[in-house]
Amino acid sequence: MNELMHCILHRRAIRRFDTQQIREDALQQILQAGLYAPSAGGRQGVLFAVCQDTEVNERLGKIKRANSNPRMATATSYVSREQPSIADDPNLKNTFYDAPTVITLFAPKNFLFAGEDCAVAAENMMLAADSLGVGSCYIGQGWTAFADPYGQMILRRWGIPANYYGVMQLLLGYPKKGDPHPNPKPRKEGRILRF
């Protein structure tokens, strides 16, 4: 099996992070993977706002949590038993799960494929992260982290253009020491249709 296929099969969402910040060389490789992701029409419209400020990340993660209203998990419908999400555990107060690096992917508000461009970039970055031993987690609805005066102030501080919105956040960090790597769920049958 080649290295890329190994990363595809190995990568899992990580929601419990070590406090150690990721190495700068690893971050640069992960960002490069995002910059080289496909984009509709080759527009390269995605902006990557990298925040490694613990206080800012914690506050934005709590704002996002307060503005999120996920359906809470049930015994038969849940995100993860191994690494619970905010939908699984109402006691989790920070949607960013205390990740040391949070990258918000911003895209133009009125571009038809803004969300898709961000998702493709995030997937490239998650695979690059896995290959470097860095855990990652994709968090959708990025705009909810900025839905209060503090969030709006952060957007101005970061210089995010008014015609852009936060599509999603990508959490990065080393997996918490002692936590086993999440197991893959069995692949569902009947998802490939051949004609």
Task: Tell me the radius of gyration.
Answer: 17 Å
Major sheet, described briefly? 4 strands, antiparallel
- Give the count of helical stretches: 5
Q: In sequence order, what are the helices and strands, one letter per element?
A: HHEHEHEHE
Counting helices, strands and paired strands, the structural category is alpha+beta
How far apart are the termini? 27 Å
Percent in helix: 25-40%
Strand content: 5-15%
Number of strands: 4
- Choose one word for the global shape: globular
- Unreliable spans are none
Mean pLDDT: 93
Going across the biggest sheet, name each strand in turn: 1-2-4-3
How is the secondary structure organized here?
Layout: H1 3-10, H2 24-35, E1 47-51, H3 54-67, E2 101-108, H4 114-131, E3 135-140, H5 149-158, E4 164-173
Antiparallel strand pairs: 1-2, 2-4, 3-4
Helix pairs in contact: 1-4, 2-4
Short description:
The chain is α+β, with helices and mostly antiparallel strands. It is 32% helix and 15% strand. α1 (3-10) crosses α4 (114-131).
Detailed description of the structure:
This protein is α+β, with helices and mostly antiparallel strands. It has helices at 3-10, 24-35, 54-67, 114-131, 149-158; strands spanning 47-51, 101-108, 135-140, 164-173. It has a 4-stranded antiparallel beta sheet with strand order 1-2-4-3. Helix 1 crosses helix 4 and helix 2 runs antiparallel to helix 4 (114-131). It starts with a helix and ends in a 22-residue tail after the last strand. 31% of the residues are buried.
